[in-house]
Design a protein that fits this description.
By secondary structure, the chain is mainly β. It has no helices and 4 strands. Strands 1-2-3-4 form a 4-stranded antiparallel sheet, with no helix packed on it.
């Protein structure tokens, strides 16, 4: 086995990922400025140059944008694959 590509994921890293073949991989990543894991869709069209195609999160998770959760503090809210 050998590495064919690397995608820098800013923040605390990846928790889970799912790739069933095809163009996109679905990654649960904890990005800087967020309260927990977000869903990140990675475009693998050019397999040696993966690109973050989009990020999805739940309302109140984007602390960097001044958003704060309205749920009780004891509850956990995250997006996972």
């Amino acid at each position: 086995m050998r590495e064919i590509a690397f995608l820098e994921m800013p923040g605390l890293g990846v928790n889970r990922l799912s790739w069933m073949g095809g163009r996109y991989a679905y990654v649960s990543a904890h990005f800087d400025g967020f309260t927990d894991h977000c869903l990140c869709i990675v475009d693998l069209q050019e397999i040696t140059k993966p690109v973050i195609a989009s990020k999805w999160w739940l309302p109140g998770m984007n602390r960097a944008a001044g958003r704060y959760p309205t749920r009780p503090r004891a509850s956990v809210m995250r997006c996972t694959t």
